[in-house]
Amino acid sequence: MAQDSNGITLWGRVFLRCAVEVVTGLHIGGSQAGITIGGMDNPVIRDALTGRPYLPGSSLKGKMRSLAERAAGATQNWPIGQQVRVHVCNDAASYAACTVCPVFGVLGQMPFSQPTRLLVRDAFLTADSVARLQAARTDLPFTEVKWEAAIDRVTSAATPRQVERVPAGAVFAPVELVYSVYQRRDFENFRTLVRAMQLLEDDYLGGLGSRGGGKVRFVDLTLFTRARDTYTMPEEQRPKHEFTTLDALLEDLDAVLAEIRREISVG
Ligand SMILES: [Zn+2]
């Protein structure tokens, strides 16, 4: 695993595992053409195998990216779709100085871009949440249905519509974030990730944020590393950094980063 075709060395990886607690009803939209239950207008995304709602890693990563872009004041230069623009570095010099693109990646492949440092895996409801939601006899399996008034901006007519949400109190875990270290500056850019998690706690995930939904909290965080030279060492033998809340990690971030730098030595 020393070098890939670009001659880039993977010096090690930081693993951040945590749980995402739903603080206010979470709506991450699924496909209406897919498995919808009861013909919902706005269904949540569900796992095809179990039929349970899940938390797509791409939703988490995409939201953290957009918050990190705004916090960094990065130019929104790249149109995706009709009205949405995102930030993507389009030359080597800005990429080299950017604190967002190396972490979250660039759209498509730029000639100068390196592998995206951050990978966020899909997460599923904990066994405890599954049991509690089953016992609660929710409107639909594992979810609640909220009626919203959709206002037509032209006629001001209010049309009621249903929105499906994962109820407050549900927990998705483990959420695994894997951060690869290719260069020395990646240690410092790890802060971009932790700050984006903090920005997300103050913002919302999925839809309905302006209506109070989508507040989430990161809890029970564990950090450990796998360095290139010790990659095969069993996980149990690795030093772990554990925090009950994201705030606790933020308080200790300098010390944790110093440990990470020691554990993954970049040659
Ligand atoms: Zn950038």
Write structural notes for this entry.
The structure is a single chain. The chain is an alpha+beta fold and 267 residues long. It has one domain. It has seven helices and eleven strands. The chain has helices at 57-72, 92-97, 101-104, 127-135, 185-201, 246-251, 253-263, and strands spanning 12-22, 54-55, 78-80, 84-86, 118-120, 123-124, 144-151, 158-165, 171-181, 216-227, 241-245. Strands 5-9-1-10-11 form a five-stranded antiparallel beta sheet. It binds zinc ion (ZN). Zinc ion binds at residues 74, 87, 89, 98, 100-101.
What ligands does this structure carry?
Answer: zinc ion
Let me know the largest β-sheet.
5 strands, antiparallel
Q: What would you report as the Rg, rounded to the nearest angstrom? A: 20 Å
Assign a percent range to the helix content: 25-40%
Distance between the termini: 15 Å
Query: In terms of structural class, how would the helical and strand content be classed?
Result: alpha+beta
Give a quick summary of the entry.
The chain has 267 residues and is α+β, with helices and mostly antiparallel strands.
Secondary structure layout plus pairing:
Layout: E1 12-22, E2 54-55, H1 57-72, E3 78-80, E4 84-86, H2 92-97, H3 101-104, E5 118-120, E6 123-124, H4 127-135, E7 144-151, E8 158-165, E9 171-181, H5 185-201, E10 216-227, E11 241-245, H6 246-251, H7 253-263
Antiparallel strand pairs: 1-9, 1-10, 2-6, 3-4, 5-9, 7-8, 10-11
Helix pairs in contact: 1-5, 5-7
Bound molecules: zinc ion.
